[in-house]
Amino acid sequence: MSQHIYGIFDYHRLHQQFLHTIAYDALVWTSLHGLLVGDKSVQRSGSVPGVGLVHAPVALFPTPFPENHWREACELAPIFNELVDRVSLDATFLHDSLSRTKKADEFTSRLLDIHSMMIQINKKEEIRLGLHRSDYMLDEKTKSLLQVELNTIASSFASLSNLVTELHRYILSCHGKLLELDSKRIPANDAVNQYADALAKAWSEYNNPRAVIMIVVQAEERNMYDQHFVSALYNTHNITTIRKTLTEVDQEGEILPDGTLSVDGEAISVIYFRAGYTPDDYPSESEWRARLLMEQSSAVKCPSISYHLVGTKKIQQELAKPGVLERFLDNKDDIAKLRKCFAGLWSLDDSNIVRKAIERPELFVMKPQREGGGNNIYGDDVRETLLKLQKADSQEDAAYILMQRIFPSISATVLLRNGCWHKDHAISELGIFGTYLRNKNKVIMNEQSGYLMRTKVSSSDEGGVAAGFAVLDSVYLT
Ligand SMILES: Nc1ncnc2c1ncn2[C@@H]1O[C@H](COP(=O)(O)OP(=O)(O)OP(=O)(O)O)[C@@H](O)[C@H]1O
Ligand SMILES: [Mg+2]
């Protein structure tokens, strides 16, 4: 980055009074436009809409990102969509890759059990819907765009990311002259419309006009407005939504003789999971029964159990091994593009890598098979955990993978949280949404569908917004 460009993006140079005015405008804008989450300090804010709302944590200004890498990330979306679909059909690959993990990780084991049952009853998913988000960081030293992970279940922030883009365009259209920034350099973000469109199209492929879309939710969800924006949009096509927890699906659900899932008397065409990705969502057998019931039904599942398994960290690591992508894709250019964005990924049965990670733990991230943020291991904890696992000499090491740590460049950002702004040094992670819908041999949608920029203070290892580590952001193309 040239000195001049860095100068423009050094938001810390801006005067306190100016920042104060912009923060005030931003707070008004978020309230008027629904860039909101439930407020932790209000008890019912996660269960009753309209109660205890607070603006989502956001960056006050967009973060610079090189246009060529931006395009690279966008181009990868349809290729990853196709890859997920192909891998999901290869039951042998999924079970072989996850066989050691199964012994060490109870959660993955339960998911695999459901998958095995579906194979036994020869269950086929003809209509397949994927709402994915592939996350990347730009490694500063190598100037390469590297994938952090691919989410195939409950990919969040399609709606709020859309709004942050609009917020930043608004701020730049009011104050761009002073900032020397042009709002047109913030790429359009249509994630929420595309997610709603994909769900509506899946509903129409199912072809039962009386059936509804069911969103499977957590009992407490402070990020509920992100979900409601999506359903509000497809509801305009006269599609009805019901929201149910896994526990409720167990209590109210049944499969009718023709395979239709009925919940509380409603026929379900599409099941959109915004829960079910963490063991916490399955406190008893009831929730597992619900997951199995849904999987057995004819409803379109977003995701199906096999799409869910493709999104595990272990599968990400297996796909990065030499020769594996070739098993699923034919196009050499596509394979090369995917491989280029793979960071170093290793299984813990690779003793050379384990030794290296014990020597230089700061160069690695250790990941269990978990989603939702806050589960990864960094720094000296990597060394400690690896040594402990070596001593125990058990199967437990199969619960983890090791990943090359990516080091993005640090920017001077202004964060807005809980009505207060503050300056900090931060790194950013770019998520690209992807939508995929097919019915048998017909691919109905395979698109890149908007983006999510997340920015977190550079002293924090984890990146989750809901988990409280990061803020929502947008991209300023350089
Ligand atoms: N290889 C890496 N190098 C640097 N940071 C990383 C790496 N892998 C993960 N992180 C950081 O940790 C965060 C969480 O990692 P990851 O996305 O793998 O976990 P997750 O629990 O699936 O999160 P999510 O809720 O986003 O799905 C990332 O957003 C990123 O900030
Ligand atoms: Mg994830």
TrEMBL record:
Q: Could you tell me what the cofactor note in this record states?
A: Binds 1 Mg(2+) ion per subunit.
Q: What catalytic reaction does the record list?
A: gamma-L-glutamyl-L-cysteine + glycine + ATP = glutathione + ADP + phosphate + H(+)
Instruction: Say where the protein is mainly found.
Output: plastid
What are the alphabetically sorted keywords of the record? Answer: ATP-binding, Chloroplast, Glutathione biosynthesis, Ligase, Magnesium, Metal-binding, Nucleotide-binding, Plastid, Transit peptide
Which domain of life does this protein belong to? Eukaryota
Q: Which GO terms describe its cellular component?
A: chloroplast; cytosol
- EC code(s) of this entry: 6.3.2.3
PANTHER family, A to Z: GLUTATHIONE SYNTHETASE
Q: Which NCBIfam families match?
A: glut_syn_euk (TIGR01986)
| Protein name, as recorded | Glutathione synthetase
Which species? Glycine max
The organism that produces this protein has a lineage beginning with: Eukaryota, Viridiplantae, Streptophyta, Embryophyta, Tracheophyta
